[in-house]
Amino acid sequence: MFKWKKLGRVFTPQDVAGRSWLKEFAQAPCALIFDRFVRIYFSCRPQADADGQYVSYSAYVDVDRADPTKILDVSARPILELGALG
User: Fold this and answer.
1) Confidence class of residue 1 from pLDDT cuts 50, 70 and 90?
2) Which of 82, 28, 20 is nearest to 47 (CA)?
3) Running DSSP on this structure, what letter comes out for residue 27?
4) How much is the pTM?
């Protein structure tokens, strides 16, 4: 059985510059394990609009499999764009 090792925070969207859609939260993570890295999909949000409302986007972060505190890549754009209202 796999034994978890608590590492603390390994990624925060506030540390990623130049992506206005990736400003707050990294929630609901789901990981895929590859040979050399782990891709973690998550939901993120830009800052709230003028009415205090949020939208969510899906993104990913790749971390080194041998050292999960080492960030290898962060998605350059949302995995899916927002759909129409309604």
Assistant:
1) low
2) 20
3) E
4) 0.85
| Segment 52-73, tens digit of pLDDT | 888 899 999 999 999 999 999 9
Q: What is the 3-state secondary structure (H, E, C) of 34-76?
A: CCCEEEEEEEEECCCCCCCCCCCEEEEEEEECCCCCCEEEECC
What's the pLDDT score for residue 48?
Answer: 87
Contacts of residues 78-86 at CB distance under 8 Å and 24 or more positions apart, as own/partner, are 78/21, 79/41, 82/55, 82/57
Contact 32, 38 (CB under 8 A): yes
- Give the residue extent of every domain in the chain: 24-74
